[in-house]
Design brief:
The protein is an alpha+beta fold. It has helices spanning about 40-45, 60-64; strands at about 10-15, 20, 25-30, 35-40.
């Protein structure tokens, strides 16, 4: 049923981690991971620049 109100875009949970990369290429996590709730298209509309660390989630590790 359409009540005339605008529908909010779908939201998703993301875990954000911040890394520091030294001159020799070693990566160190800078802070504790934090979970945020955001809109599903937020990264698609403005991707974050820079190199991304390798994902260590079970799904990515299984797909190599």
């Amino acid at each position: 049923m359409d009540d005339g109100k605008a529908q909010a875009p779908p939201r998703s949970r993301m875990t954000l981690r911040t890394y520091r990369r030294s001159a020799d290429g070693h990566e160190t996590e800078r802070s504790e991971p934090r979970e945020v709730i955001g809109y599903r298209d937020s990264l698609a509309s403005a991707p974050m620049p820079g190199a991304w660390p390798i994902c260590t989630c079970p799904r990515c590790r299984a797909n190599g």
